[in-house]
Amino acid sequence: MVPPISLADAQLQMARTIAQGPEALTEALFVGTPVQVLRGLKVHANTISHARLVALEATFPRTRALIGEAIFNSLSRDYLDTGNGRNQPLDGLGRHFADWLQANAIAPECVTLARFEWLWLESYHATDMAPLSVSAFAALSPSEVLELRIKPHPAAHVLRNDPDIATIIGLDAPAEWLLLARPEAEVMAYAIADATASLFQLFATSDNLADAFETFLLRHPNSNPLEAMQFLLAAGVLRKDES
User: Fold this and answer.
1) Is the CB of residue 183 less than 8 Å from the CB of residue 235?
2) Cα separation of 87 and 92, whole Å?
3) Within a 10 A sphere around the Cβ of 33, how many other Cβ atoms?
């Protein structure tokens, strides 16, 4: 008689069997003949496969509509069959889907839309954190402003825009970049100019506001960093770095 195994061991062995195939099956995991066990594994594997495909559909509904149901389903199967998303929860399967579409020469507007939908999901699930407000920034002294350490809000993202997807996501402005923000409960999307996107990205790497502005002016000598700063503050995409 095969001794029983713990629930934790059973879950681990089941995951290993699903990932590696029947050869990884241990005797203690199932009862019944090998044929019966293999039949059960196939049913379970098909259930998992279907759930993963449905999860990708739910993650990229607009991309699926743009590409077309049949083609999206085929691409999703190829994406998962080549090992993408392995050992990921269902809501994490699409993390590299846009990059995979790009590597497989899918139309640029489809890649941009997939990237937008993934970042939208990341914004939606991001950690709650109060953004740096316009009023709080205005209340700082000049010396405090120069030494202020600012970082992007955890729910904020920027990505290159594609004019072909503007109407799909409800934006008409033909700007170079898209900005995603969720300062409170709702994810918002904005079309922004290159200079504004550049300042936002500089805050991720600069030691303080003065350094960010200095680099910004070198890259965009004809742009006003205060205007870009005011927009980013109003959108709720910046936070004060307390570290």
Assistant:
1) yes
2) 9
3) 9
Distance CA(239)–CA(53), nearest Å, equals 36
Tell me the two tokens of residue 152: 């992007």
Which letter does DSSP use for residue 131 in this model? Answer: P
Place of tokens 């409960």: 185
Token pair in block for residue 131:
């953004």
CB 138 within 8 A of CB 226: no
Other CB atoms within 10 A of residue 119 CB: 20
- Mean of per-residue pLDDT scores for the chain: 85
d(CA 49, CA 56) in angstroms, rounded, equals: 11
Would you mind telling me the total number of residues written for the chain in this entry? Answer: 243
Which of the pair, 165 or 12, is modelled with greater confidence? 165
User: Looking at residue 29, what DSSP letter applies?
Assistant: T
Q: b/e string for 171-197 if b means 16 or more Cβ within 10 A?
A: beeebebbbbbbbeeebbbbbbbebbb
Task: Write a three-state SS string for 166-206.
Answer: CCCCCCCCCCCEEEEECCCCCCEEEEECHHHHHHHHHCCCC
Per residue in 52-62, pLDDT (tens digit) is 778 888 999 99
Parse the chain into domains and list their residue ranges.
Answer: 35-125, 134-240
Check if the beta carbon of residue 109 is closer than 8 Å to that of residue 74. no
Instruction: Using a cut of 0.85, tell me whether the model's pTM lies above it.
Output: no
Q: Using CA of residue 36, residue 37, residue 41, residue 47, what is the dihedral sign?
A: positive
**Among the residues of the chain, which ranges form H helices?**
7-20, 34-59, 61-67, 69-81, 97-103, 108-125, 134-138, 142-147, 194-202, 209-219, 225-235
